[in-house]
Amino acid sequence: MFPIADEDILPLSKEHVFWTWSAQARVNPIPVKTAKGVYFWDIHGKRYLDFNSMTMCVNIGHGNERVIAAMKAQLDELPYAAPGMTTRVRALASKMIAEISPGGALRKVLFTLGGADANENAVKLARAYTGRYKILTRYRSYHGATAGAMALTGDPRRHMWEPAGLMPGVVHFLDPYRYRSTFHRTNPDIPEEEFTRDYLNHLEEIITYEGPETIAAILMESVTGTNGIIIPPQGYMQGVRALCDKYGILLIADEVMSGFGRTGKWFAIEHWDVIPDIMTMAKGLTSAYAPLGAVAMKPEIAAAFNDRVYEGGLTYTSHPVSLAAAIANIQVMQEEHLVEHAAAMGRVLHRMLTELGENHPSVGEVRSIGLFGIIELVRNRKTKEPMAPWNGTSPEMSALRNYCLEHGLFLYTHWHTVLIIPPLIINEEQLAEGFAILDKALEITDGAVTG
Ligand SMILES: Cc1ncc(COP(=O)(O)O)c(C=O)c1O
Predict the structure, then answer these.
(1) How far does the centroid of ligand 1 lie from the alpha carbon of residue 151, in Å?
(2) What is the mean pLDDT of residues 62-88?
(3) Ligand 1 pocket by C-beta < 6 Å: which residues?
(4) Are residues 47 and 99 in the same domain?
(5) Among 97, 200, 292, 319, who pairs with 239 as Cys (CB 3.0-4.6 Å)?
(6) Confidence band (pLDDT; 50, 70, 90) for 166?
């Protein structure tokens, strides 16, 4: 289509592209050429099994012809309309999102370009609606890379930018992370109910100290993504909802990564029958066929702006091509029953992860919900010493990732963890194909086990 030879892609990119999340001299990108289903191919024809849905976003899999056709048709009809106008796709996409939202309760939708700006707008809405300014988020969280979203982010990705001043008013709290629970080091076998209670007490104590009348919202990933696939223990999500109700605080669910079938429900928060006041989404909303994010909200929040202006907007809000992708993506998910398929394959993934854990001494713990899985690698199961330090890497983790890539398995490693987040269309055979490579790769980390 464009006059660039395959072999020029990498050198030209290295010369002119400024890479995100990277030391520029150290990048070594895969020059990817095409993709179909759960696989993609580089310019040399090497095939990779995609165990990370690219950036945890290609939920319906690669090269879906129905979505591509919908986008092409939209381009022919109308590529763009101004934010103050409306279009067939804007009407339909907002209605569809309202209908699939938890309990069908989030009736109004503000469209953004991705997850970070969805969270930023959710914060604006919550602050304007409540008249309060503080936002509580968790330490083990990632909410995006713009200044407000970085402030919301609890993990170390915010540190570099803090000296310059990020969005003020964010207070972090601890995650109910059972495997490495601060409160239960001497009592790891505490019953789940008590474990949940301890973390809710911790949260309520923080609410008290901060002053409930200053807190606009608690914003949380329903299931924590890159910070560890932390699945809320029974009663936790309901307990957070109850605290929000008690103190007049809004609950914002960040479903950017956990939404759109990833956990075997449309949205992860539905596993606990909790309805948030505001929910943010992106990634699986279009399965990354085009950039799009969204903020869905309860009608009373939207109604607070009936007579006052919402001060916020984006040139590309409700971009018709992205909305066409979202509509077709949701239709594919519904008609091909991909949420149910993800739940069924999730049980297979869980079994495979458990077996892997039994066979490899470097596996400290595995966790998964739907097709959202993680392996925690440790040097010692007793001490739980991680295979790479907090916010760092190690020769073993690098070698493991390189082994997988060499053998055609694309996955994401984060510090001492390996994430397994494949497209929802994956089948058992394809999961087994990836796990066979992982099984060999883990011999590398097994070799570093000390006890
Ligand atoms: C939970 C969560 N929230 C927000 C974001 C930010 O989304 P984006 O990269 O589209 O801005 C991400 C991205 O990975 C995410 O995982």
Answers:
(1) 13
(2) 98
(3) 114-116, 119, 142-144, 221, 225, 254, 256-257, 282
(4) no
(5) 200
(6) very high
